[in-house]
Design brief:
binds (2S)-2-hydroxybutanedioic acid; D-Maltodextrin-Binding Protein, domain 2; nine-stranded mixed sheet; 9 strands; 46% helix; alpha/beta; 13 helices
């Protein structure tokens, strides 16, 4: 009787277990990786925090990078993208990166000027004439040098991304001539060079973190601002400003950064996959940021009553004549010879236009 009971238990256990064995295992195939699988601790998770919306060039590029990394590492590395500053805001994300609370961020280059004044290069007004110009500099030796600039602070630079050109907007009056800026308060990112730009216009710069842009505008903390179309659109700034000038006067770029210790701890093969995914994303973002900014300019035209002016060539000359002192200020604060040479050449070009 005892043997009969024992044998019955064995048979029942065998039958039940069959239902729980994965079909692929029975077929001799390897089980594809998924999050529930045992051995999850072996998966490398990279938390990538940024402050903008998902439907912006940076938001889309972060998702693209995550998808490419998953493909290239067969799911071994997972990039968790955390948008909208929902984890770390403008003011905190650099610290969070340095302390490895997140492994990746992509702040605007202007927000790195606190680490080294050289980053202010990209805030010089009318530094670039067009998108090709931007790409040439971002992928040049100068760009590469900047990427390694903060390694001694525990920051590994992975890439420079472009979100294209910034435009001006105001609630007070249309911005056509330099005089139109006088006395107005403009929101700026924390960058001395951008501050100098508005001072040269006779305006007052007001530093406001990105996540407080909308509420600060509601609370009348500033009159105008500058940003790319994608940020003006996604933060609904266009709904609260009366005038916008498509001026292409400034550039908004990002440095994609990783915690250096974390990077150094990664197996070489993983580093190579990340580099390949980053190179592909950076290339993809060039046309993607143009597409998003163009499309969202059309949406702003359709959805709002904001008056849009396109800066004329003559007005542009007036603007950069007024803004030239900003170049001199920048040159006083940097030592890099190649960078100085580049800036002086650009000044010459602007003066002879
Ligand atoms: C801003 O603060 O306006 C931008 O840096 C936001 C961003 O990251 O595009």
């Amino acid at each position: 009787m005892k043997y009969l009971i024992g044998a019955s238990i064995l048979v029942i256990t065998f039958i039940i277990s069959i239902f729980f064995i994965p079909v692929d295992w029975l077929n001799g195939k390897e089980i594809p990786y998924d999050d529930e699988q045992e051995g999850l601790s072996k998966q490398i998770v990279i938390r990538f925090s940024h402050v903008v919306a998902e439907n912006t060039p940076k938001g889309l590029a972060a998702q693209k990078f995550a998808q490419l990394v998953e493909e290239k590492t067969d799911g071994m590395v997972k990039v968790e993208v955390i948008p909208n500053g929902s984890l770390y805001k403008d003011e905190d994300e650099l610290d969070a990166l340095i302390h490895n609370e997140v492994q990746m961020i992509a702040p605007s280059l202007s927000k790195l000027t606190g680490l080294a004044p050289e980053w202010g290069l990209f805030d010089l007004p009318f530094l670039f004439q067009n998108d090709q110009d931007i790409q040439k500099v971002l992928s040049s030796e100068l760009g590469n040098k900047l990427l390694t600039l903060n390694e001694n602070k525990g920051i590994k630079g992975l890439a420079l991304w472009s979100n294209g050109f910034k435009q001006m907007s105001s609630n007070v009056k249309p911005l056509r001539q330099p005089d139109d800026f006088i006395g107005q308060r403009f929101r700026i990112m924390p960058s001395p060079i951008i501050g100098e730009q508005f001072k040269a216009f006779g305006a007052k710069p007001v530093e406001v973190p990105f996540d407080q842009l909308y509420t600060s505008l509601q609370e009348d903390k500033f009159d105008g601002q500058e940003n790319t179309i994608s940020n003006i659109y996604s933060r609904r700034i266009y709904g609260m400003q009366k005038y916008m000038t498509v001026s292409n006067h400034g550039f908004l770029g990002y440095a994609v950064l990783m915690n250096k210790e974390f990077w150094d701890s990664l197996p070489e093969k993983v580093q190579q996959s990340l580099e390949a995914a980053m190179a592909e994303t950076t290339l993809w973002m060039i046309s993607e940021s143009q597409r998003v900014n163009n499309q969202q300019l059309q949406l702003i035209e359709q959805e709002s009553s904001i008056q849009i002016h396109h800066l004329t060539e003559q007005e542009k000359i007036e603007w950069y004549k007024t803004l030239m002192p900003v170049y001199h200020k920048f040159l006083q604060n940097v030592n890099d010879k190649a960078m100085k040479e580049f800036v002086k050449n650009r000044m010459k070009q602007l003066e002879t236009q």
